[in-house]
């Protein structure tokens, strides 16, 4: 059974500066080691669909997602259609800047197809989730670097 996953990082910048980097889903490939493309069909806001291309080594697969939350300086969340996972970035103001939290929630489990493919092609759920957490930490570190450099 897939688990909910969470990582966070503190960024020495106000939430509006973090949001400025995070607000454009087309920038996701700059940060995520798994995301090759994330293209919103329309101006990013709640309800908008994105078309995505992902990879793990030589394996590539397309997905679509719906933006669930698009709250300026606060949160960005989207649900991946193919596996029902919900990815959320939450911005929390801190004394020294912003804590950026990334979560992957699996509120209703994943689809049979997703579970089958994870087991057959991505090393099984435990290995895949370990890889996801590593990727999440990498993504947050790259977002931090981009924000603090701007």
UniProtKB/TrEMBL annotation:
Give the matching InterPro entries: Polyketide_cyclase/dehydratase (IPR019587), START-like_dom_sf (IPR023393)
Query: Which superkingdom is the protein from?
Result: Bacteria
Q: Which Pfam families match?
A: Polyketide_cyc2
Name it.
SRPBCC family protein
Please give the organism: Nocardia speluncae
The root-end lineage is: Bacteria, Bacillati, Actinomycetota, Actinomycetes, Mycobacteriales
